[in-house]
């Protein structure tokens, strides 16, 4: 029993913020977090003990942990999405789109995405992030989720831009990112963490408990508070990813990403008391489902603004 419990006081909650992957749809949680920051009267990272994200969620989460406000994140993604998902301007780029339709190569060159990530994070390293931050990727060599953690010694020196590049390397969109994931120097081909954990909430809860054990501090699940932000839920059956002329790759990716998000939400809901788990999500039209259609951003913002979820005020009480 700790001192707080001895005195009959409740210990301070261990507060986790998680953000799903979702490409351009990342603008939805950004606007919600921007509103949450108004309730908190300050940046969200100052009210969190752990931040976790997948793909665009990793970019946003690392941005917040670097000191970015939600307003700054909104401006970053409104401009950055057009860089990451740039339209073809040359015969070479148009040829790439044709090859992508056949499933022969990625739809986008990596240069635009890497340019964007370098401009956001510069020389920032994982160890510079506060609070501890997780970014999920998928090692296609070992066929398992890889959790980059700013709290792990072997990850502290990794460039944040490169970790986010690994987390956003969605198959059919970009080529896998070849990088050393620890101090062994061995390079692994890394792909989007959304392949198996588009919603990072369960891994975030697990990592928080594991990290606490390593420090000798016990974290009880009853004391964990999670704010989990989705990027919009399209109608069942609507594709979020590029379709190949054969369709097989698209169907597999859709099943992996959709199944992972739904399963993790259900699991987290059973792990934590209802009062401690806050899932912010909204339904979106099928036409807004694609992850790379930048022309949808204005409508996605309108959907986000019109459907602010209930619970921000009550959540605010648990975060401050």
UniProtKB/TrEMBL annotation:
Q: Where is this motif: GXSXG?
A: 53-57
Sections of the chain in a coiled coil: none
* Source organism superkingdom: Bacteria
Keyword list, A-Z: Hydrolase, Lipid degradation, Lipid metabolism
> Ranges for the PNPLA domain?
17-205
PROSITE patterns tied to this protein: PNPLA
Q: Name one GO cellular component term.
A: membrane
Task: Name any one Pfam family assigned in the record.
Answer: Patatin
Entries under SUPFAM superfamilies matching the protein: FabD/lysophospholipase-like
Q: Does the keyword Hydrolase apply?
A: yes
> What positions carry the motif DGA/G?
192-194
The record's GO molecular-function terms, alphabetically, read:
phospholipase activity
* One of the GO biological process terms: lipid catabolic process
Identify which residues the record assigns to the active site.
55, 192
Q: Where is this motif: GXGXXG?
A: 21-26
Q: What is this protein called?
A: Patatin-like phospholipase
Species name: Thiocapsa roseopersicina
Question: From which lineage does this chain's organism come?
Answer: Bacteria, Pseudomonadati, Pseudomonadota, Gammaproteobacteria, Chromatiales
